[in-house]
Specification:
Length: 130
């Protein structure tokens, strides 16, 4: 899991796919965190992406660093604890201009049943599960 976190953190922008009814939706994300040995992402509860993940928690992330790309599939689970939100905001202080651990909008979600596959044009695909 740490390797997945480091890759996503270093790449900066990654893309998350959700489902909206029967239509795929993809948008950029840019923050990750590890809290209590779980990989977390963050968004706002008022956003459509949040609503989509609550209806269907199966998501996939894709990112490319110029040589290697990753596809991370799994389910996300909302964690409403202030400690989880505060950890995300402390790890990504630029979010503090828009979010607070105590507000009703900040949403952090962690991955379960996760499978990350690293790909490149020169090596065999490699899988990390957590």
């Amino acid at each position: 899991m740490k390797e997945v976190y480091v890759f996503l953190k270093n790449v900066g922008t990654f893309y998350i796919a959700t489902v909206d009814g029967d239509k795929p939706r993809v948008r950029p994300f840019g923050v990750v965190n590890i809290f209590e040995d779980k990989l977390y992402i963050q968004t706002g509860k008022v956003k459509n992406v949040s609503k989509q993940m609550q209806i269907n928690p199966n998501v996939e992330i894709c990112a490319f660093d110029g040589k290697v790309w990753i596809r991370l599939e799994g389910k996300v689970v909302r964690d409403d604890r202030i400690e989880a939100k505060a950890s995300m905001l402390d790890a990504n202080p630029m979010l503090k201009n828009m979010y607070s651990a105590e507000d009703d909008n900040t949403e952090v979600l962690y991955f379960t049943d996760a499978k990350a596959t690293f790909y490149s044009f020169t090596d065999e695909a490699r899988v990390v599960e957590f």
